[in-house]
Design goal:
Two copies of one chain form a homodimer. Chain A is built from twelve helices and twelve strands. The first copy, chain A, is α/β, with parallel strands linked by helices. Chain A has a seven-stranded mixed β-sheet, sandwiched between helices.
């Protein structure tokens, strides 16, 4: 990113972009088109709604947290009929319940899913959720913003019609780029949809990308950075990166439990994206996060929405190794002890390292 | 941009964002709200259309090049009735003709203007064009993407309701951020408009910005860079920057004319953004730009649309001094001489330096 900005209408950019798109195919595990937008991941989500649907059409949103609710907000902004299969924040969506809901409804244009619900730490089973959606003739649309590159997403093998991701999570790049993979069935639907779209319209971007060009001036420095970062990811190996994330998750949960804290996110063996932890009674969660940030320069994520102040989250997606986790655990331990919380001292870091090292993935 | 990415929901970001927004007010010369989007400038343009207008409403687009036509495309994508006051590429829009057109039409929701038509090098007289628009009760909406910070834009004094800009031109930052200033009258109109908008919706961004927060994950590293760059611009002084741009334009045109080349953009004393030059007969303009890029590492801009191959453009907006201009001129001179064009050798650089040094702005 510190390199000179190259001109996006010149050959340098085309070479960079061609390489990046080919690398991304390996990460999305797809032969579908992958479009790149200069936008937050939310822009990529909006592109799916705007390009696939017409006002009045029904979509089913499977929602169990902050980002599931975002799908509903976008769909409502476009005048869609939103049917929510809503779970409590922190619950894991059930493919069987989705099948029942789709059966009751009779039909839906699309099912909008969240792979990693960053607000709660839950990773949904996209492969299983996609099945009833496909059977009901609905397109499978997945927010994979915080999951792509951290946990498996088999776009083609699982029949994911649209997968949306962003640069800033497991793709290890600063925020500002959204990625959208689009299946042939989704392209067919898009050809008939009537919602307005210009910046996020798919077809002009696809046409430009055929020549490794962009419709509008892209965030060139971020594109350069993303190319390097996905190169690093492929060099590590996608399976190896998934395994590393699994082991980071185990290490984090082992440390948290050793301290005597309660997990908010599920204590599942392969949870790998973010670990949400209940704040002990009598401790102010917002203050805890702020004090760890200010005193130690360590950034934890606070609770969002109804979980504000009640949980804190330790992220472990992307450019992380186990010592980032032990550092976070050590800081949490110190800050909680000083806040007078009743926690076990001196064991979290050791347990975390053991869990990381001795795990058969 | 090489600094660590800061968390956009934490205090560091709020302090940065507050300072940036206050600096931008000085550059937009406005007390209006200025919203920041992670997007190309085109995204900011779309936000104006989507937030201000309802399907079927009439807008007048004043168009004299590639970017004027973009306004029409966006407005049509949103189902607006587009009335184009269209000029040949390279012509300068006439305020009197706009007044007549508005008079004929009776009413229009908005007039969509382009301050610097980068495709041709023409800078329109926004102050004069805004007057008939205001008198007709239309909102004044200006694409100031390649002009803000290079030529005067008096947002409040000229009654500009919406000014759109981007990070990557005179604001001297890599691409990826769009800026939109919004007058009270535009907010009123936006409250009644019915086009769908989510990512580009104005109201949620305004609310978030009240607390120096963002609706969606912003391109943090670009925000950090923009803050530094607009700090540099204000340190130089806005008037001083305008003067520097005027002198760079004069230097560039003096050099081009000294070589015996024809200007495509107007030979106006205060032209300051980009200099468009006719490619001599028997020279391939695309090849010329490519060869200067490949041999010398100097990036000129090719012609766009109907001007493809017929012109090349020397940019002088933003982080430029006169030696960037003389370098470009020297390369053009060498490349054209080698291509067999009949040009005057050995005078362009000297004339350019004279024009830059001896000019009373």
């Amino acid at each position: 990113m510190a390199e000179p900005v190259i001109h996006h209408r010149a050959r340098d950019y085309r070479e960079l972009f061609e390489r990046l798109l080919s690398r991304l195919e390996g990460i999305f595990r797809t032969e579908n088109d992958i479009l790149l937008y200069t936008a937050s991941g939310t822009g990529g989500m909006e592109s799916a709604v705007a390009n696939l649907c017409s006002p009045g059409e029904r979509v089913v949103v499977v929602s169990a947290g902050y980002f599931g609710e975002r799908w509903s907000q976008i769909a409502r902004a476009y005048g869609l009929e939103v049917d929510e299969l809503a779970y409590e924040w922190g619950e894991t969506p059930s493919p069987a319940e989705l099948a029942i809901r789709l059966d009751e409804l009779g039909s839906a244009a699309a099912v909008l899913l969240t792979q990693s619900e960053t607000s709660t730490g839950v990773v949904a089973d996209i492969e299983a959720l996609a099945e009833p959606a496909r059977e009901a003739g609905a397109l499978v649309v997945v927010d994979a913003i915080s999951s792509l590159g951290a946990v498996p997403l088999e776009t083609d093998a699982w029949g994911v019609d649209v997968a949306v991701s962003g640069s800033q999570k497991a793709l290890m790049t600063p925020p500002g780029l959204a990625l959208v993979s689009i299946s042939p069935a989704a392209w067919e639907r898009a050809a008939r949809a009537s919602s307005p779209a210009y910046y996020f319209a798919w077809e002009p971007v696809r046409k430009a990308q055929e020549k490794f060009d962009a419709t509008f001036t892209p965030a060139v420095s971020l594109v350069q950075a993303l190319d390097v970062a996905v190169g690093l990811l492929l060099e590590e190996g996608l399976e190896e990166a998934f395994d590393r994330h699994v082991r980071l998750g185990r290490a984090c949960r082992a440390g948290i439990k050793a301290m005597g804290l309660d997990l908010f996110s599920p204590d599942e063996d392969r949870s790998a994206v973010v670990t949400a932890v209940r704040v002990p009674d009598d401790v102010d969660g917002q203050m805890l996060v702020a004090s760890i940030r200010d005193r130690f320069g360590i950034t934890l994520a606070p609770g969002q929405g109804p979980l504000k102040g009640k949980i804190f989250r330790i992220g472990h997606i992307g450019y992380f190794d186990v010592f980032d986790i032990t550092t976070a655990l050590a800081a949490v331990e110190l800050a909680l002890a000083e806040a007078g919380a009743d926690i076990e001292r001196g064991v979290a870091v050791t347990r975390a390292l053991e869990a990381f090292e001795h795990t058969v993935v």
